[in-house]
Amino acid sequence: MAILNQIKIINALKSVLPKEMERISLHEPSFIGNEWNYVKECIDTGWVSSVGKFVDRIEKQLVDYTGVKHAIAVVNGTAALHVSLILVGVEKNDEVLVPSLTFIATANAVSYCGAIPHFVDSDESTLGLAPHKLGAYLKEIAEVRNGSCFNKKTGRRIKAVVPMHTFGHPVDMDPLVEICNQYKIEIVEDAAESLGSYYKGKHTGHLGKISALSFNGNKIVTTGGGGAILTNDDALGKLAKHLTTTAKVPHQWAYSHDQIGFNYRMPNINAALGCAQLESLPGYILNKRKLAENYRKAFANIEGIRFFTEPTFAKSNYWLNVLLLDKKFVGERESLLEATNKSGIMTRPVWTLMHELEIYKSCPKMDDLSSAKNIAECLINIPSSPGLFRSND
Amino acid sequence: MAILNQIKIINALKSVLPKEMERISLHEPSFIGNEWNYVKECIDTGWVSSVGKFVDRIEKQLVDYTGVKHAIAVVNGTAALHVSLILVGVEKNDEVLVPSLTFIATANAVSYCGAIPHFVDSDESTLGLAPHKLGAYLKEIAEVRNGSCFNKKTGRRIKAVVPMHTFGHPVDMDPLVEICNQYKIEIVEDAAESLGSYYKGKHTGHLGKISALSFNGNKIVTTGGGGAILTNDDALGKLAKHLTTTAKVPHQWAYSHDQIGFNYRMPNINAALGCAQLESLPGYILNKRKLAENYRKAFANIEGIRFFTEPTFAKSNYWLNVLLLDKKFVGERESLLEATNKSGIMTRPVWTLMHELEIYKSCPKMDDLSSAKNIAECLINIPSSPGLFRSND
């Protein structure tokens, strides 16, 4: 029986990572720029809350950086997804196609709409939703009637799909767009992990009707907690701002609301942190890509495990770096997680697949989720903070 | 015809307010304590996000201050209300009794549960829900079957009531508790505006099964955006933390979730701001109560308008100070709002009554909402920031 060489693996990790750190996290923020200046300005001026110049500024910085026409800062990535789904028209009892391999927020956002997640398989070359497989599946289970897609088995409308760019690696969007056009399904990109990742030269978030970013503390850029909605659609952009600010009708003093909106706006103090973080983003990405390249080299000749690299059509932010065990070593993953964590290097498996959670077990799903299962069994995340790359290593 | 003396009113406001300010807001935060130190510590240590010592600390400070056993810091007051309603068992198609005179968040939180707000009248002596009137109304429309209350007209279960302590003045809770015990209705206190307000010697939030605070930028204490859930019930306290942190099952590295939870935790950087703010709260309340006393004196002899003072059973935080026009001057309110705002003193009417909003028009309601209407027609909020009281004025 083949046995995984844990020592070689730990040494490979150590060869890439800084020597002087006793414990290395999976992902920590770096505050090396104007963070304190901007946050201090909020406190000094009293503008810490929902109105303030840093909210406007972070939205402008996001538009400039991603090239998407509208950015709406919100309280977190889950809120961004929730409102995005509402805005493309997801309603109670609709189905929304979601990869089984994703963070819980993707499926929960669907549930918040009263809709039902419908789980689909992933592609081992991108770690994200598998478009061609989805196309074949829809041919079998779906039909288009009166301009909407319906699930022939459940009778429910399939309103949207949420490709999630796993660990910063873009889904293959072109075939997905084609399939969705054919089946009249709206695309909401879950770009929570892919700020700074490009698909065929364009920033992620351009090919869906609307998309969601996250600035949680473990993300490439953080606002403490936060997120944003991106869209090239003028009307949706306007509605996104309205819905995320309690749908209040503008008036000097009167309080009236014309929709059931949400208290999802980002506070100014969090936006201030984010403005500084975004200034540093290009540097973070350079460092993260170099760190990934070092990992790739260090693992090039280790048997039984490989470092996952970006899809050919993509330039990824390498948000969380990924090792994949060969199938035959799957049984040794827990032991490897234990050994690496014990040696001070934080590692972690991927999320439990959504269709395996008790709360989502009864949702519709593809019969064949084999690639998602393969990835889930073999994957290990390794330390990826932007501060870990040292040019003089 | 009687004409309101606008000049006298503006002069009365000016006699209380600082002279040197060109424009006086309704409510601005004061950052006079450790705000800088604590927030800087977050940035310096990298702990800005969902885990961190200030989240634990603010929860402890809230427990110490209010005397309620458990406090769970969340992303805003709306989120606190939403989860509180879920935790007392509000389900899809239930009805929840809500004052028509409230901020939209109270009604929206009910809607987020898939439940239906049922609007009830307020009491002109508290500005909050009228318990005795509610009792008489329930006698007419409700019946208790198998331990639950049902609306005889709609057939729906009436699961909960949300007394909101308007502008910091407590609802008369004792009769409400009695009525709710009789009718098997759970009480969720909307204490968004009443941090620092006491009902018969106990801090608001003690008499409901669970209650919600807000730390929005306009509140007596701010975290930029934030809120908290308070409860004396151990099991609910534990569940509140679980549900607001995506219902993740604790594990060193594995990601599993046992409920459809929410991403509602408060980021550490916001909690840091709040910890400093809470340290200053006793001083804010002293100042706000003195400011209110000055207003009371200044308006004591002005015809046609009166300053609203705390109910006899309460010690209020006087979050937002209130003037009430005599009925005969209601037609002059818009003109008074214009004149005061034009003179640099921000004033505002109360919110549009919930049952008058298009989105909530078709919800069940009391036939007689006359007190809510009276208050809504006559009320004007005036500047109330803790920094406005000057001891040497």
Feature tags:
7-stranded mixed β-sheet; Aspartate Aminotransferase, domain 2; 2 domains; homodimer; 393 residues; 11 helices; globular; alpha/beta; Aspartate Aminotransferase, domain 1; 3-stranded antiparallel β-sheet
Note the topology.
Two copies of one chain form a homodimer.
Chain A (H helix, E strand, L loop, with lengths): L5 H11 L18 H11 L7 H14 L3 E5 L2 H11 L7 E5 L4 H9 L3 E5 L10 H11 E4 L2 E4 L6 E4 L11 H11 L2 E5 L7 E2 L2 E2 L6 E5 L12 E5 L2 H11 L23 H32 L5 E3 L6 E2 L5 E5 L7 H10 L27 H9 E4 L11
Parallel strand pairs in A: 2-3, 2-6, 6-7, 7-10
Antiparallel strand pairs in A: 1-11, 4-5, 8-9, 8-13, 10-11, 12-14, 14-15
The CATH homologous superfamily of the largest domain in chain A corresponds to: Type I PLP-dependent aspartate aminotransferase-like (Major domain)
Silhouette of chain A: globular
Number of strands of chain A: 15
**Alpha plus pi helix count of chain A:** 11
Strand order of the largest sheet of chain A: 1-11-10-7-6-2-3
* Largest sheet composition of chain A: 7 strands, mixed
The largest contact between protein chains, plus residue counts on each side, is: A-B, 68 and 67 residues
Number of domain units of chain A: 2
Mean pLDDT of chain A, to the nearest integer, reads: 96
Unreliable stretches of chain A (pLDDT < 50, length at least 5) are none
Oligomer: homodimer
List SSEs of chain A in N-to-C order: HHHEHEHEHEEEHEEEEEHHEEEHHE
- End-to-end span of chain A in angstroms? 37 Å
Percentage of residues in DSSP E strands of chain A:
15-25%
- Percent range for helical residues of chain A? 25-40%
The CATH C-level class name of the largest domain in chain A:
Alpha Beta
> What's the architecture of the largest domain in chain A in CATH terms?
3-Layer(aba) Sandwich
Cα-atom radius of gyration of chain A: 21 Å
**Secondary-structure content class of chain A:** alpha/beta
* CATH fold title of the largest domain in chain A: Aspartate Aminotransferase, domain 2
